[in-house]
Amino acid sequence: MRILGKGQIDRNRPVSFRFDGKSYQGYQGDTVASALLANDVRLMGRSFKYHRPRGVLTAGSEEPNALLEVVGATNQTPNVRATMQEIFDGLNTQSQNRFPSLSFDFMGVNDLLSQFLSAGFYYKTFMWPRAFWEKLYEPVIRRAAGLGRLSGKHDEGHYEKAYAFCDLLVIGSGPAGLAAALTAARAGADVILAEEDRELGGRLLADEPDLDGAPARDWVSSTEAELRSLPNVRVMTRTTVTGAYDNGTFGALERVGLHTPARADLPRECFWRIAAKRAVLAAGALERPIAFPMNDRPGIMLAGAVRSYLNRWGVTAGKRVTIFANNDGARQTARQLMAAGVEVAAILDSRTDATAIEDCPVYLGARVTDTSGRLGLRSISGAHVGGNFQIETDCLAMSGGWNPTVNLTCHLNGRPRWNVDIAAFVPSEGVVPGLSVAGSANGDFTTHACLAAGQAAAIEALAEIGVTAAAVPLPRAEGVPYAIQPLWLVEGKGRAWLDFANDVTSKDVKLSAQEGFTSVEHMKRYTTQGMAPDQGKSSNVAALAVLADATGRGIPETGTTTYRPPFTPVSIAAMGAGGRAMGFAPQRFTTSDQASRDRHAPMIEAGLWYRPSYFPKPGEKTWRESCDREVNMVRSAVGVSDVSTLGKIDIQGKDAARFLDLVYTNTFSNLPIGRVRYGLMLREDGLVLDDGTTARLDENHFLMTTTTAAAGLVMRHLDFIHQTHCADWDLRLISVTESWAQFAVAGPKARALLNAVLDAPLGDFPFMACGETQVGGVKGRLFRISFSGEEGYEVAVPSRYGESLFRDLVAKAEAMGGGPYGMEALNVLRIEKGFITHAEIHGRTTAFDIGMEKMVSPKKDCIGKAMAARPGMVGEEREQLVGLRLAQETKAFGGAHLFTQGAEVERETSQGYVTSVCWSPMFGATLAMGFLKNGRARHGEKIRIVDHLRDLDLLAEVCDPVFHDPKGEKLRA
Amino acid sequence: MRLTCPLCGPRDRREFYYYGHEDYLQRPGPDAGPEAWDDHLHLRDNIAGEVRDLWYHETGCAQWLVVTRNTVTHEILSTELVADRKKKGVRA
Amino acid sequence: MRYSGWKVITQGLLGNKGWTPAWREPAPKAEYDAIIIGGGGHGLSTAYYLAKNHGLRNIAVLEKGYLGGGNVGRNTTIVRANYFLKGNQEFYSHSLKLWEGLEAELNYNVMHSQRGLINLFHSDGQRDAFARRGNSMINQGDDAILLDREGVREHLPYLDFEQTRFPIYGGLLHPRGGTARHDAVAWGYARGADRLGVDLIQNCEVTGIDIENGKVVGVQTSRGAIKAKKVGIVVAGRSSQVAAMAGMRLPIESHILQAFVTEGLKPVIHHVISFGMGHFYMSQSDKGGLVFGGDLDFYASYAARGNLPMVEHVMEAGMTLMPMIGRAKVLRSWGGIMDMSPDGSPIIDKTHIDGLYLDCGWNYGGFKAVPASGWCMAHLMATDQSHEVARRFRLDRFRTGHLLDEEGTGSQHNLH
Predict the structure, then answer these.
(1) Does C299 reach chain B within 8 Å, measured CB to CB?
(2) Where in this chain does the record put each Rhodanese domain (chain C) (predicted)?
(3) How many domains does chain C have?
């Protein structure tokens, strides 16, 4: 029910929204919860396990009950807190975890069976028969569990991530936070003020105390105006600081576009990474319920929430309200309700020594022992020092005291300490470096103390980073100490809920203790206490008080479970913003990319790069047709391929050659200028890291190439060796991969093609030569190397000329019966020639395995040499690289295992496996490479290939992996 | 998590690549024997507390750093360039 | 007390007053035949099988905190047998068979759910590597099915097949792969061990290992000295610290692995999904939360908590692979301390000290290994011989080069 004259909603701006198909009206500034309460809707959800009818408990992000689905035009969002979702025209919400409707839910039968569904019951049953678990029990449990629904459709929403930096991050904008921010702002510090709510003020808005004799809102407004006017202050509302991380980093979620109809220019949410030199936590405190029998009915709420709805939204949650509390704070709720004209049936104060003087009946030493009302509270009964009572009431405002919001102080493994005066955990000091705590988050529950503590925290924090801040005049405020007498649980016949969200009752906690789950972590895990969407914010302390009682320990000895990020749940889309589709990893494109796409080449991923798979010609229907043509083209004419993705590392200095001798297994110091050599590189553990060629461009100048996959790895490796082992050598390394576009030109007509594009014809340029060249007036480099087994060259020009050179090479090649070739043909060519890739050097192979142990120079040390000599790294037991040849064409069988003919097919008899397979148009045979136990001694043997997955069982001849031109005559042509 | 690169200043953790304990700096000689190599590459004190380990400012200045930090609290106590150690005459 | 549906009903009718403690809380005795240091999943299963398979009764498990408080209670609960190297294959295959009988064995519902695991691949090369793996699994006697892209689509229609950064070429389906309720595994073994007479001693921290003449004779603890001639160190996450008490230096570096769970949702993911290009894996728990994780934070740590770079990387991987999860909200993140070994495989072996045994180095694959690890460690402690399926998990294999490196990433501890 709406109360005239109360609240800060804009009554001139009515807003209509839907809940469960029905249209309701609220005002600009309402949340779904406040608007529904204004419309006298108390039933907003069903509980997780027993499907009990539930209403709103709180007015904040800690809400355990009122979770809704927000239905958008293209998607829906589950588990939205009605207390946090602001209404806007067209907002469509619906209740969740119920069937068929919120007021009538079949699963409510669980409530009748609750005695059989006690804590951990599922560990004791559903075991027989075994097959029923997956087929029956689990599907039923899964369907009954869960809360809201995902649509199953891609989330097409727009999300963002951002970084921010500041001197002081102030978390929370109640009295402590505002005082801290104002103090720091006036001192000229860079300040970020983060507030979870849509407006600043914290409990100043909800409680409406007087400041300097005027409504607190006036001071909040003037302070906000000043903060927003200052260039050194960033005020972030609707922003929850979700986690404290190392070295002053905080995560924060800003709800940017969730309070309005979807707008193309607004992301839904933005996840912030804030690097703060210092931070002040002023996140306030959260009120806690009291566990009493049947305390979960819609209409039973926290007293502070009742106050919030009254003062912020002008809504009374009931027509006849009763207060049940163990502290002074809740008295304010009664007084404010009465002042607003709402009937207060009684104040039930659990203390016997509290004052009874109020403008309504006050029962001292009171307990609520039962309630009634299936879909909403109708009455309560209880006892007090004077006897029993029964009260007709539709709203019970309860307060079991307040818990300082210590969460962020515990994210770095800090543990809070018990403060007996306020019967609550307060933050331990210094547990998050650079973060101090002020105000009620620190256990100071008066407005006066909050203001002063916020200011002091800011001055101290800034002093630590060398900024002097002066005290600013703070408003006068109340300073009456908070008095509480702990009351956690009222024993009685009915169930008393602790964790509303997960349906954990005091009986569950006691049962857990009874069954030996006495550690607080065991209790949590056994009962699921605190594991629901609210993470036990309003219930964990009471639950461990009940556990402490059941185990005869005190609360401090019982301890808490661990507070972990995020403080409130954060959507995967927000923290994963930017990852959608192509955003997940950088895309790297070669200079010939467009030219390849122009020729309709399918581009495939090669690490982060894209490379052409093949270049289809009109009439070719399958990739194989194109591939076979390209292979034949290279073997008979000439092919052009972009090899720029290979890593290129420029190495210079007097000690460059010496350095290469250290990082390669073979020797480079004796490589003549103008020559290229193949090199093998090991990791320090003796396994093959990478291979490639290195060219000596000058006495002290080398150019190393790496495989595409290992380019970054090798660069890091070389930097490491240089800086750790020979930083005093004359040596410089830099990656030039992106500086050069490089093209392979291979085939019998390769020289002719080069002569057609180079400014001067090639003279004597033998196999493994390198040197400078000129193309269209542009200086480039030429290497005579081959990955195909044909006469081959690689020509490199600065990247900006890459595309034009590629187009030119391809056009001239086509005039000679050649053309471009893609990755598929490249793969066939290299298998025919027995060249390895990372399919073979997959991190488990040694130089011995690939038949290159002779490349490990005995004359010098090199990285990996010592460990390569370990007994397990050599010998007949190792699987060695072999070629495999089959006459027939067959499905690809990469990954098949090899077996000796006649042997059983099982783990221990597996003799090896196949790494690479192709159909060779040149040989008219299927060629493969693989690793075979003692394989080099088994050339000529017929070996069985078994591929269970593709249902293949083949025989192949074991042979040398070099099928094509074993003597290398073509290379040297 | 943030580290201060001696050359680039305070940077986010994601600019750095982590390798392992500074044991990797003490490369044994080629004939040091299998125990020494096992020590170098595999065996670790693996202290819960203050350690010195190796990070690479991969998307920054490409320098390897020795970082002194606490593996329990994640406090960073100091950072220095690996190359400086070598130049100062610390034999690896 | 034997658990059953009938018992749940009769106890329910009696107000659940009759349930008895799942395990005793004994005070430590002065001497045991065998002591297991570490009351996590592996330690508890070791104790259980020592009693069950080898007839030892005078056994204690010493736990510095609470039972199951380590990685067994903070993981993504995946159970699978999809390894391809001899040494790992037979071990995990054995473990999966034990899982399949675990409820009956322990009279405890560990909710082992064989809903199928799909490893996605994103290139021809990855397909061949997964084919090798799948063929290894079948050679071992386990199950594997190679799915093409359309095959994956039938199982996982909600993946982004059109726009994802690394297109889905197919997947390797392991039908017997799945999940289990992690805490229940620890509790089930604890209860089972207790029923066989094992003393489970919580809040008992081992502070020293007593060795005389090269033989172990007992341990020092926060609750006094305890004698034993056989001591097993089963403390993944703290292995280096405990081994140091015996003067040992292990091939282990400790790292954080974070994991995440969302708020409860109605069933939407019915498999375990693993995305090779993004180090991302996800399943949905019976309670409805999406349970998922990614790679290590990569820096050595004992903090049991992580940092944002990996958090965000994991979320980004989820968004490129399956953007339908975008509106699920992460409820909680946590970190476990992993024993990272130089080849990514574990160690179950004797040490150079008589009577001192080691079970460690589980990297981030320890949960599924709980049954077989206990089985093999118990065999080793009882017989002084490595069990057939764990014979390749040698402590000295890094020195000798008999590596079990499934990832092929080499001796750098954090790369597995």
Answers:
(1) yes
(2) 35-78
(3) 2
